Amino acid sequence: MKFTKFGKALLISALSAGVILGVTSCVQSYTVGFLYVTGTVTAQSTSNGIISGFKIDHNTGKLTKVNGLPISSGGANPIRAALITGSRFLYVLNQGDCTVSPCANPNITEFAVGGNGILSPQATFYTQGLNPFRMIADSSGNYLLVLDHDSPSNAACAAALGASATTCGDITVFQVNQTTGRLTLVVNAQVSAAGTPLTYFPVPANPIDFLFSPGYILTLSGTPATGDSVFPYTYTASSGQMTLSQNSAQPLGINKATAIVSASSIVYVLDNEAPSPNPTAAASQILPFTVGSGGALQAETGGIVPDDPTLANPIYLMVESKGKFLYVANQGNNALGSNAQSGITGYFITNSPSYQLTFTTPSTFGSGAGPQCIVEDPSDQFIYTANRNDSTVTGRVVDPNSGVLNGLRVSSSYPVDGPPTWCLVNGRTD
């Protein structure tokens, strides 16, 4: 078969178009997951906070707003959120109006996660204590736990923690209905008040944070006057029960802890106190531990790890999916003054000796002002922070060889409504 010049031109054009379409199809963008951000909005007549949502592009990390969001968080001052039960349900802890003491009208609002990342409010639940401020779910998705800063009854503190405990905080435990997502209160089987089981689990006074470590729940508490300590409970995953595993809290030798986080079998306590003899220097540091018998913390052989001296006030950390790098979100803007900057610190994780941390090169990466959280996307390519002081979300690409966090090829900063308070990622896209 012979082609005229015109026919040959048409054939070449068709083949070229096919090649282009083929290449295009190989790099076709799609949503790999959703990023949810809670935030406070003081302009609303209801004083409720909001939940914003973004689609995460698999190829570029670009964020696109989810249609129908933001929506009301169901209460004022949403401070934490959790996804459980196959990412079908999202729970927001609304701390309430904290211009009064105790905070007024706190609650937990349940949302169903629908197609395209849409959220639909379902029901509202309430903790047993006062001033709730932290919330976590166990790995099975069967139980949701809330840390209340203040127990509803000081009389129960001594019964649960010893005669010297005149005040305490508490943990409220809920069982999750796997079909509806509804929460049912778990009663404390070990501690009774006047013969009646408590509806909460007392923890030492002035709690700061808490976490799950395999077989245990560890609570971090303390004040600058008494120092910070960790108190362990044995956790029964089949019932949600918490049982005292030791009679006293374990002192850490610090007094300005900000968070306790578990990652890759290591427990990290984040601390932010000015060191002597140079109290004006940035003083962020990380205390790494393994968990031993009875939930006791055992210091890692490398000892305390310094934060980068240009950053301060570490509030959260995460280990990326391959376990090679660790990143710390530093809130900055604290009592150390103008030298205390916001940003992300990067570390290599060395497995021999185990879990030693050394700085990446460079060791710091930009974020927005005052990051509140740090998360990795479901495709393990991108890291995001939600930043309270400038109401943005910042995205970065993880270099898998060096751990360096580069800017996204598209915009790395995205505005959100209301100062962000927390963020989390959902990998379920159907």
How would you describe the overall organization of this protein?
The chain is mainly beta and 430 residues long. It has two helices and 35 strands. Among the domains are: 131-254, no CATH class; 256-365. The protein has helices at residues 5-26, 155-161, and strands at 31-39, 50-57, 63-65, 71-72, 78-84, 89-94, 107-113, 119-125, 130-137, 143-150, 168-176, 183-185, 192-193, 196-197, 201-204, 207-213, 216-223, 227-236, 241-244, 250-251, 257-263, 266-272, 284-291, 297-299, 305-306, 314-319, 325-330, 343-350, 356-365, 371-376, 382-387, 392-398, 405-407, 413-415, 420-426. The strands form eight sheets. Strands 1, 2, 3, 4 and 35 form a five-stranded antiparallel β-sheet that branches. Strands 9, 10, 11, 12 and 15 form a five-stranded antiparallel β-sheet that branches. Strands 16, 17, 18, 19 and 20 form a five-stranded antiparallel β-sheet that branches.
List keywords for this structure.
single chain, 430 residues, mainly beta, five-stranded antiparallel beta sheet, 35 strands, 7% helix
Our Rg estimate from Cα atoms comes to: 24 Å
- Count all strands and give the number: 35
Which strand-content bin applies to the residues?
over 45%
The count of helical stretches stands at 2
Low-confidence stretches: 14-25, 334-338
Mean pLDDT: 88
Measured between the Cα atoms of the first and last residue, the distance is 50 Å
